[in-house]
């Protein structure tokens, strides 16, 4: 009887071990839905991307520096964050955190260099440059994104006009064009559609789109769209005319860029290539003539 009991116990232990190994190899997320698994993965990813001690110091410093920069600076940089499509920063607080992190990371090496060289002006200038780098990068990214919107708009409107003339409603045609295109313009249009999905009217959604961008061509399109909705005029003709006008504006802007690039190329040639060519010619003449400078200087001393 005792042997039978030990046998049952050993069998139970073996069964528990096999079941435990199977549980270790199994994924507990398989029993969840796709939405629940996505939420868990996002929460885990958020925990993995902990800010760390430097990030926490930067956040504390950003909370102190933010009010010191003033409301005008906050509004201006928030505008640039929106124009850049929130590619790098979600809000002004995150932007200030990045600026503070650069200052913290650059403070220690700058202090060591200043103590070694005893030149504090260069250290202050370096810290100031680190503090301004995110501003310049954000300004550049916002400008590039707005230029991309300006360049994509004529083709976008041509396809939209053809789709509307094929018989689809404006909403359906806009969704169809967005599905088959990519870029910042499609992203902004998709955001406008999502705003209409949550209850905003078409006028309010496109007015928000007008405020999020600086493109004059896009503003003309929004004005023509809203006027067409109010007056009941055909939208296809207006889209074709706006696309044609925007292509003329794009060609004019390209010619202006080419005209501005000519002085820059001339400056590079004058400041870099001409001196480099003169140095190359001088070095070649030096080795070709093979002058003995020691003998030459000796003769001059005598």
UniProtKB/TrEMBL annotation:
Keywords recorded for this protein, A-Z: Cell membrane, Membrane, Transmembrane, Transmembrane helix
Topological relation to the membrane, as annotated: Multi-pass membrane protein
Highest taxon listed in the record's lineage: Bacteria
Domain Type II secretion system protein GspF span(s) in chain numbering: 156-281
Pfam families, per the entry: T2SSF
Keyword Transmembrane helix: yes
Keyword Transmembrane helix assigned: yes
Signal peptide: none
PANTHER family xref list: INTEGRAL MEMBRANE PROTEIN-RELATED, PILUS ASSEMBLE PROTEIN
Protein name: Tight adherence protein C
Highest classification ranks of the organism: Bacteria, Bacillati, Actinomycetota, Actinomycetes, Micrococcales
């Amino acid at each position: 009887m005792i042997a039978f009991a030990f046998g049952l116990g050993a069998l139970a232990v073996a069964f528990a071990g096999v079941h435990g190994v199977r549980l270790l190899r199994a994924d507990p997320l398989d029993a969840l839905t796709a939405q629940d698994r996505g939420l868990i993965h996002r929460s885990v990813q958020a925990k993995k991307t902990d800010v760390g001690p430097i990030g926490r110091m930067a956040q504390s410093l950003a909370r102190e520096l933010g009010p010191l920069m003033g409301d005008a600076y906050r509004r201006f940089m928030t505008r640039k964050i929106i124009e850049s499509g929130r590619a790098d920063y979600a809000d002004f607080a995150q932007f200030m955190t990045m600026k503070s992190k650069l200052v913290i990371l650059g403070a220690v090496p700058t202090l060591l260099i200043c103590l070694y060289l005893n030149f504090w002006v260069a250290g202050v200038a370096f810290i100031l440059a680190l503090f301004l780098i995110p501003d310049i990068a954000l300004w550049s990214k916002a400008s590039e994104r707005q230029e991309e919107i300006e360049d994509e708009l004529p083709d976008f409107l041509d396809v939209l006009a053809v789709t509307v003339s094929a018989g689809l409603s404006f909403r359906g045609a806009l969704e169809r064009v967005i599905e088959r295109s990519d870029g910042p313009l499609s992203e902004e249009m998709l955001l406008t559609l999502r705003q209409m999905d949550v209850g905003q009217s078409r006028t309010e959604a496109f007015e928000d789109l007008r405020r999020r961008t600086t493109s004059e061509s896009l503003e003309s399109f929004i004005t023509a769209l809203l006027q067409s909705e109010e007056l009941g005029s055909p939208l296809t003709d207006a889209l074709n005319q706006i696309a044609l006008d925007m292509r003329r504006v794009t060609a004019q802007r390209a010619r202006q860029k080419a005209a501005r690039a000519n002085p820059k190329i001339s400056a590079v040639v004058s400041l870099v290539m001409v001196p480099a060519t003169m140095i190359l010619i001088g070095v070649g003449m030096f080795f070709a003539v093979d002058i003995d400078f020691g003998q030459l200087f000796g003769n001059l001393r005598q």
